[in-house]
Amino acid sequence: MTASPEERPEETDMELIDRWKAGDSRAATRLVGRHSQALARFAASSGERDGIEELVQDTFVRAFASLDSFRGESTLRTWLFTIERRLMLDRRRIEKRSRETVPIEDSDQVSEYGALDALIAEEAQERVRLSLDALSPTQREVFTLRVQQGLSYKEIAEIVGSTEGAARVHYHNAIQTVKEFLRDE
Amino acid sequence: MNKCTDGEVREMLPDLLHRTLPANVRERVEAHIARCEECRDDLRVLRAVHGAAVFAPRIDVDKVVRQIPPYQRIVPPTELPARSRPRLVSWLVAATLAIGFVGIGALLVTQRDDDIAPAAALAVASRAPALALPADVEGLSDGSLVQLMNEMNGFDALPATEVVDPVIPVDAAENIEQELR
């Protein structure tokens, strides 16, 4: 029995890109499905409050519009993070709003947990949110990319336009700050 | 709290969290964590931060995909090479023309310097017969004679090249004879 295109979980991003270029719109669905939540988490943990869905959507629209410039030297996800980060910076520059981190949408999560669990989770999230607020913008980006996305220092350096060494230093300073903040709470 | 002495392992804690470590490395890291209080503390913080990330909004994949235009309409496959090639060609043409203009200019200047001498020689040569006066003057036509006369009128007097004996006035000569007597 031959597996249908949807039943090929091992298909790489590059293969999906080629399929999409050949006119297979299902490849785009798989690519978006594969990376959209990671982009949403990165945006949320980077302090974005409103319009995360639009941000993720803009990221994909831009990425697909310039897929010819993606050579596969980094992973697609790293490349998408780079695009999303630029969009976030553009947004902040235009709107000139404060970088305070506020929980984005709790409705989905409330539906998945019981009331008590949700309360505990909310408190835990609040503490983590406040600790991340204590970081510099670059520290927060590096820290969340390393901890929440599990990216390597090399990938993080590509996204934030820095070096691996600098990313390491940001990470270590960030975890010290977060630990001290949570210990003092 | 004891301080961590294995920075390499400590840096791998996020990878342990994401289960991206090879089995043998994972065992090494877990063994280290079992005896390192600081790394256990780090791991607790990392788990808290990692767990807090689930509160991002759920993305409607189909909605996002609907906003993505088809590949052909966004970036035609030949657009990029077509745009870059004429630009490169135009630069090459411009550079070639510039070099050509400079080369031709230099050539013209050189030729001009060379042409000045023959032109002067021609001018002198054209006058030379007039100065030398043709031997057979009688053979010249009236028009040629008039032209020759006109040209001769235009000649400047040549400086004297022979030593001429001084002319002594008559009065002065008589005075000299008297003095000699």
How would you describe the overall organization of this protein?
The complex is a heterodimer of chains A (185) and B (181). Chain A is an all-alpha fold. Chain A contains nine helices and no strands. The radius of gyration of chain A is 18 Å and the shape is globular. The termini of chain A are far apart. Chain B is mainly alpha-helical. Helix content of chain B is 70%, strand content 0%. Chain B has nine helices and no strands. Chain B has helices at 7-11, 13-17, 23-35, 37-52, 61-66, 71-74, 79-132, 142-153, 170-180. Residues 120-130 of chain B have low confidence and may be disordered. Chains A and B meet through helix 2, helix 3, helix 6, helix 7 and helix 9 of A and helix 2, helix 4, helix 5 and helix 6 of B.
Instruction: Summarize the amount of helix of chain B as a percent range.
Output: 55-70%
Overall pLDDT confidence of chain A: 82
How much of the polypeptide of chain A forms β-strand, as a percent range? under 5%
Give the low-confidence spans of chain A: 102-113
Mean pLDDT of chain B: 73
The Cα radius of gyration of chain A reads 18 Å
Kindly state the number of beta strands of chain B: 0
Summarize the structure.
Chain A has 185 residues and is mainly alpha-helical.
Relevant terms:
heterodimer; A: 185 residues; mainly alpha; Rna Polymerase Sigma Factor, Chain: A; Arc Repressor Mutant, subunit A; 2 domains; B: 181 residues; 9 helices; 70% helix
Topology:
The complex is a heterodimer of chains A (185) and B (181).
Chain A: H1 13-21, H2 25-45, H3 52-65, H4 76-95, H5 107-112, H6 115-133, H7 137-147, H8 153-160, H9 164-184
Chain B: H1 7-11, H2 13-17, H3 23-35, H4 37-52, H5 61-66, H6 71-74, H7 79-132, H8 142-153, H9 170-180
Helix pairs in contact in B: 3-4
